[in-house]
Fold this protein.
Amino acid sequence: MKNDLSFSADKLQPLMSDDFVFGVATSAYQIEGASRAGGRTDSVWDTFCRLNGSIAKSATGEAACDSYFRWRDDLELLVELGVGAYRFSISWSRILPDVSGALNQEGLDYYIGLADALRRRGIRPMVTLHHWDLPQYLQDKGGWQNRETAYGFADYAQAVAIGLGSSVDFYTTINEPWCIVSLGHRSGVHAPGLRDEEAANAVTHHLLLAHGLAIQALRDHAPRAQLGIVLNGGPSLPLSDSEADIDAAGLFESEQIHRYASPILRGEYPDEFVPPVGRYVQRGDLEIISEPCDYLGWNYYTRNVVRRGDNGSPEIVAADDYPQTDMGWEIYPDGLRQVCSVLQRNYDLPPLYVTENGAAFQDTLADNVVHDPERIRYIQQHLDVIADMIASGVDIRGYICWTLLDNFEWAEGYSKRFGLVHVDFDTQVRTMKDSGKAFAELNATKARLAAGCNERRTDAAR
Ligand code: GCO
């Protein structure tokens, strides 16, 4: 297997354009650790991790990658990777640690320092306001089931925007509402661990309302930043040609994609959600939710193979028609094209960014190296698809790889390694994997080409 990322000239050209950015992503709870430092209080994930049996090997994010304290080292890794953007999230309970709503300046200063340092190194900060770590004091008042949480989120967005303002290039309101709804409130495998369909309906609407209110607050206080949301999902394909499976796949697509994309991009819930979710809608909400975004972030990992389950609901089948990652997810790069064409068929889209894509494999560290040709191949295959899509006219502006560091992979604890950089969780030693080196090489090529272009431009101007 090949150990670099290389492209034919026609594919290289769109990826090397100045309008296309390469980056890496992380999230606060997955890397920061320092769960009790700097005035931070518990989030729902701290609580969830304490529940017996919720996380593989009873792991927690208490220490994670210790990036709160080691952020300068991690910044050097970003510089070594040569990325143009770094997507990270802010821990809400570091900024507003208690129910009084008082600002914790120390928490805010941490992120101001990080954003400034990134900018000095020429890396564009992409800030996610909510990557699943709702403050526990808000969960105690009903969490996302409580409409008030949406207004609380707008206050938090405002506090961040006043602190970081336009020194941040991109703000994302919420990461993957589908996961919060379906994994957090329906199947209960993520925090807060509920299995409650009615809760899932209320949470859907309040998350979207929170998104719209936050866009308004960000527009006021960070007028130069690009604002958007990150949704996720793959194409939903029926297990068989039976009408039952085809219907189930359609329903699942609607559940995962249109339930969120339609209110945001069209200002209406799809018909099938009007009775269940619609009862939480108040006058004016849909206008707020459909405030125009500057971009849409999409996280893509795999496809969904769907059948009609015994109870009549769509059921995801663990398909294995294609090689799988260590998550048991099929490697199916064309799914990214398929899901984008679903979006294009249904909506008038703002520019797209692939805000997450990456793969877990069982890496081994030996003699200070990690050979991970499967991860390189995974990234290569998805970038090939993206290059083709851009060439065919899809407006994709960036590829943000998941993820910088091996980290706390939610319910899987530390058992799944997605990083371009290996982390030894006993010593916190970081080691660039071969995939990281390949990504760095690609970024170096991009930088060389950009420098060459600038030189030519300067010459032409003389
Ligand atoms: C996700 C999450 C990440 C995960 C990644 C791999 O947005 O789903 O953003 O936190 O770690 O997707 O499962």
Remarks:
- The longest helix spans residues 434-461.
- The first strand starts at residue 21 and ends at 25.
- The chain has a mean pLDDT of 97.
- The pocket of D-gluconic acid is lined by residues 27, 30, 175-176, 179, 299, 356, 402, 409, 418 (CB under 6 Å).
